[in-house]
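Posted in: Protein Modeling Q&A

I'm a second-year student putting together a small comparison for a lab meeting, and my supervisor asked me to include a predicted structure for Pyrroline-5-carboxylate reductase catalytic N-terminal domain-containing protein. I've never done this before, so apologies if this is the wrong subforum. The sequence is pasted below exactly as I got it from our records. If anyone can share the structure token output, I'd also love a short note on what stands out.
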Amino acid sequence: MSEPEAVVGILGAGRAGTAFARALLRAGIAVDIASTRPPRALQHHLKIYAPGADPVLGADIAVRARTSSGLVILAVPQEELDEVDPDWVTGTVLIDATNTWQDELLPGWLQAAVDEQLPTSMALAGRFGAARVVKALNHIAHTEFDDAAQPGAELTQRRALAVAGDDDARGLVMGLLVRMGFDPVSVGGLAAGRIMEPDGPLFNRPLRREDILRFAR
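Accepted answer (user: helix_wrangler)
Welcome! Here is the predicted structure, written out as tokens:
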């Protein structure tokens, strides 16, 4: 019996979410994507910005992913995180691709972490406790994503992306990034994701492996 097709779920159908979807689809990975709009209303948007992605309800975002890749990408604005039910991603590896922007009105639980100067992924790991959170995909601009993903290039010639996580889930995410066309670099546990945030040294810079390794723990 053949293995089931790899499916990755994406929460968020904005510019970042659809950029991730396009790269995944080019790599031969199926995509389920959910937003605040119902699936029928999302269909036309996806035909333009992520043709081939399947619109689903938020509650169904991990249904297919759990039996294949086990991966869901969180790509919603942090100010809207209270709209994401933690039960939706139970049993998955949740890739935190979100960022904190100064003008956002954050949920109270996340603002408390920011006020304490904690890495935001640590707060998300508490909020989505039934998933394993890994920080990745947040420090590259969505406008650069299509050109930066180069699955046909040698690994050493690809753009490097940092990954932070506390267990073997980090390796699963690194494998996904390889398929998407990047050179993933582990920077340590989830707390190390601080260096990937907007005020960190890795944010929105074209990087090679050696650039990231300077900051790895």
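A couple of things worth pointing out for your meeting: The chain has a mean pLDDT of 95. The chain has seven helices and eight strands.
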